[in-house]
Amino acid sequence: MISLKSVKKTFPGSTSRMGPAQTGGMEVLKGVSFELQPGERVSLLGPGGCGKSTVLKIAVGLISPDKTPAGEIPRGSVTLGNIDMFHGAKVDRRRVLRQVGMAFQQGALFDFMTVRENLLFAMENMTELTPAEMEKVLKGLLGGVKLGHTEGMFPYELSGGMQRRVGIARALATSPSIAIFDEPTAGLDPVTSTIILNMIHELGASRGDNPRTLLVATSNVEIAIRFADRVILMHEGVVIADGPWQELILHGSEWVRHFLSVRLIGLDLDYARGLNLPQEFLKAHWG
């Protein structure tokens, strides 16, 4: 459903009235490759600034990969639902994007629209639902994220956690085949983070005979391992590990093992067991 092969991205150097322009730019992605199969649930994990959000934006065609020196062909390839996002026909790209739901880091709600209008806007422009069907979806999703009372409210009237929950509801309102969530719990308290993660599981996992492909980008190790067995771990613009986190935390490189374990060591033992940490790991750190 999602495929990136050798994708590179460099943002140009900035200019300033106070001095000369920076040259060379910043190389954010240095050849990223991975694939997600239909119905797969995956966590894209890595420290802040490693390129996770850039990967997501490239995957859905919001920004393009670097081009060759000739300036014509993007370096690497990006396909979404088997459609080439930078060489495919415009009509095909539009068609596949109608199957994608994305929740951005800060919710990215239209601030001049109410909660109700935000969800209806997505459905009116990306589905063939009737007004009655849209109403049913809207009520169901807002009820699912425990925000049924906010229909007439504007984003500025909502807390950060509430905005994230509305963003998740909007991402799922079009019943997408692919749902992508960028740092859905960043900056939120543990209770709200758990609520949001559970909602993604409950609202995003079921789609009849065609299960959704779910991708969550996060810098939080606990969120990543609670969301999915498979973790794609990024560091400084490259994928340095890809596989079941239970194996990576035991047998990955030294950097991978440290990154995955350092934020887990010291947790309450019963809580650690609840995260399904490998027995070998529990014995090594809890005795």
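the 2nd protein, sequnce then structure:
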Amino acid sequence: MIGRLRGILVSKQPPWLMVEVGGVGYELEAPMSTIYDLPATGKEVTLLTHYAVKEDSVALYGFLQEAERALFRNLQKVSGIGAKISLAVLSGVSTSDFARLVQAGDVVALTKIPGIGKKTAERIVVELRDRVDGLAVTLPGTGAQAHGAPLDPAGEATVALQQLGYKPAEVTRLVQKVAAEGDTAESIIRKALRAALGN
């Protein structure tokens, strides 16, 4: 099992990353919470990883914080939740905020995350309430720094949000609503996710 990678960040195209370790390029999927805090491409990065093997595929997921990886793994123990929804959860809400929602039994707020319906939200509250105690006090990465603005921030944000599970029409509406001149893709994504979740 691959538990951690340390190498050079070659590329980041949300939700995909590539890290070169000893001449080998590892392709990983990561939540936006991790992508916000990544260094510029060409710099060294250390990622905690989750290695997933299925019948027809092998996938590697990367996280900057243990709390993110722990929540990613715990979420997939809930019936009906896979890696895609787990990444959407981590991208849409911090680990500490998620823990508070679960402990408060806030099903309505949880259903605002892409892929989570009422029944799934109820299962999350029941099955994870006892597992999120440590996450409520963990400070999440907020990624205030933007490392080099892309050529088309709104376009990059649009693609990333669609990959997180939002419908194209909804993404267009969110991006148009929150994007401002000078915004980076990361800041547009962050504001769009807050708007989608009603924050």
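The domain at 71-137 is CATH 1.10.150.20 (DNA polymerase; domain 1). The mean pLDDT is 82.
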